[in-house]
Amino acid sequence: MRHLGWVLLLLVSPAFGAECSARGPGSVVVRYIFDGVLHRYWAVVADCAHPERPWVTEEISQANAEIEAKTALQATPVVEAGAKVILRKNEDGARIVLTATALEPGRTGDSIRVRIESGAVLEGKIQGPGQVELIGKAKWNGQ
Predict the structure, then answer these.
(1) For the segment 118-143, what is each residue's pLDDT rounded down to a tens digit?
(2) 88 shares a domain with 64
(3) Do 45 and 107 fall into the same domain?
(4) Distance (Å, rounded) from C-alpha 66 to C-alpha 44?
């Protein structure tokens, strides 16, 4: 059983430092793992107060795993800063579709600023991965 921890540590990406520095002391779940052999769910937990300590695995229930996975998915940005997005607007029978660059990250439902090819900065609401709907009156300022 002790070797299971080492195998899991090798499978998990060690890029959690930003998560710990943003949250401060305490612990952070690095990843959730489903064990197909034992049919159990595990959380890989890092101790942010003591980063030199190895990560540990804790068994969690299936219901908790599903809830926490949904929460983690909602917390992850669906649009990253600098990503190319499709900017859309449907109004009074007219349809506008533009390619834009996201100026900030965001999740579904968040308002972000985007820059279109002419250089104008507009505001939009994220509808999904790479999909932004233009909101409000357009501010055509070439910043």
Answers:
(1) 999 999 999 888 899 998 765 554 44
(2) no
(3) no
(4) 15
